[in-house]
Amino acid sequence: MYEERPARLDGAVVWAHTPAGPSGGAVLPDGCMDLLFHDGRLLVAGPDTGPHAAGEADGGAWTGVRFAPGDAPALLGVPAHTLRDQRVELAALWPGGRVRRLAERIADAPDPSTALEALALGLAADAPRPDPLTRAVARALAQGRTVADTAATAGLGARRLHRRCLDAFGYGPKTLARVLRLQRALALVRAGTPYAEAALTAGCADQAHLAREVRALAGTTLTAYTATATGG
């Protein structure tokens, strides 16, 4: 079972996943990074460029804080592109003793998700405020604006925008735009919007374009995704 709620940290989401069986769906690219707690361990999920197994094979419950796109690198102290398509122990990024104490505190808490959220809030309090330019880039691309228009509005050249996106999101602006467009389309599909309408509304050229993006980024088909997402 999967549940999520808005976090007290701006733009973030707190989620919990308790496997109900031996297999389940995949985590799809969303432009975000997550701080994870599982089996007494703290981990970081880097930005994905393709589907990632949800973790049921490890058994037990997972708790996470999914940060807003572009926010996690400043909180964790690592450029996003160094963790692309990876799940790494937080102890590989921070001193082991500190991570061990934090993990023990979360494990002993009555509600690990609340304790993990408190950790994220503490990180945000000690870090610089989110970069408004990074937020503006993510917002523009999420709205379907072109990379060229986004770069011009941000006052950045193409190369500088690409470097900033690699550090903040883990991949360049074109890939980020594709990921965010896919998420828009799949949200519409989950809400019952016909495929062709969802494709055009999200910014795809047509339904065939959306189908290709689902295969490339989600590793499945529109029909299979809909059946999984709706329990059909």
Automatic annotation (TrEMBL):
InterPro entries: AraC_XylS_family_regulators, DUF6597, HTH_AraC. It holds the Pfam family HTH_18. It comes from Streptomyces lichenis. This is Helix-turn-helix domain-containing protein. Keywords: DNA-binding, Transcription, Transcription regulation. Residues 131-228 form the HTH araC/xylS-type domain. The keyword Iron does not apply. The keyword DNA-binding applies. Gene3D superfamilies: Homeodomain-like (1.10.10.60).
